[in-house]
Amino acid sequence: MEIPPKSPDGSEKSPQSKELITSDTGSTLCMSSRSESVWTSASRSKWDIYHKPLIVVSVGAAIFLFGVVITSLSCFLTKNKKVYKMSGPAFLSLGLMLLVCGLVWIPIIRKKQKQRQKSQFLQSLKSFFFNR
Q1: Per residue in 44-61, pLDDT tens?
Q2: N or C of the chain: less Cβ packing under 10 Å?
Q3: Which domain does 75 fall in, by range?
Q4: Domain count along the chain
């Protein structure tokens, strides 16, 4: 491994790293934004917007149905009855939890989409009135 040279003032950082840290080349809007920029108005499809909650809902429903099947097996089968009685409710609760989380996530995304549309509208109004 190569050891970076020490700077003249004795600190561990090299002169190149200090220059990069103090440089003001980055845009603060891009650095502070966690999601897509307000300035890009590319429309996204419904699948792009809702695919994560739909996947969570479908996985939750599948696990819930699997839990129903395992729980019902504990009623009909006498062999390994304790295993079915223990694992069935666990799958039921896990599936129900994922199902509810996905179903709650969808209205949250809808609300955020409405807020984003309002924000883009207000940004366009601001730029119209202040750029005259």
Answers
A1: 888 888 899 999 999 999
A2: N
A3: 48-127
A4: 1
